[in-house]
Amino acid sequence: MSKQKGKSFGSYLKIALTAGSAPSQEDLFSILFYFRQILGLICGIVAGTLGFTGIFTIAGFLALNCLITYVYAYIYLGVEDHKVEQNTLFTESLMISFMNFVVSWIFSYTNIYLKATVPIPIIPTSTQANTDL
């Protein structure tokens, strides 16, 4: 049995931070996966903190995610158009990033804006119940 050894985190990070590195298709999708997860988390926290709600927030995130991914891949990393299909570039790991966005958006919005409005149930203790009679 031969063990396949993948690239280390440091090598992916070096490719991701080097302008014009033109990674292979496999490396590109690995880098974009983590890039999109971080982007979804940051956008969700910002949207929740600023109090954005509604369908325009979701549409704005999807448009921003695709735009930033396009700029990052084609302009910053220097990926050639004929190596990667644009449809694949836009849809690869988009839904996972969207779920990260939604969860972080809900948690941050709820923690900041709905914390005071959520009623906390008060369960009377046995001494309080006896004194009320």
Count of alpha/pi helices: 6
What is Rg?
A: 22 Å
Coarse structural class: mainly alpha
What percentage of residues falls in helices of 4 or more residues? 55-70%
**Major beta-sheet overview:** none
Distance between the termini: 76 Å
Number of strands: 0
Shape estimate: elongated
The proportion of strand residues reads under 5%
Q: List segments where confidence is low: pLDDT < 50 over at least 5 consecutive residues.
A: none
> Would you tell me the overall average pLDDT?
82
| N-to-C SSE string, H for helix and E for strand | HHHHHH
How would you characterize this protein structure?
This protein is mainly alpha-helical and 133 residues long. It has 6 helices and no strands. Helix content is 67%, strand content 0%. The longest helix is centred in the N-terminal third of the chain and has 26 residues. It is a multi-pass membrane protein. Pfam families: EMC6 (PF07019).
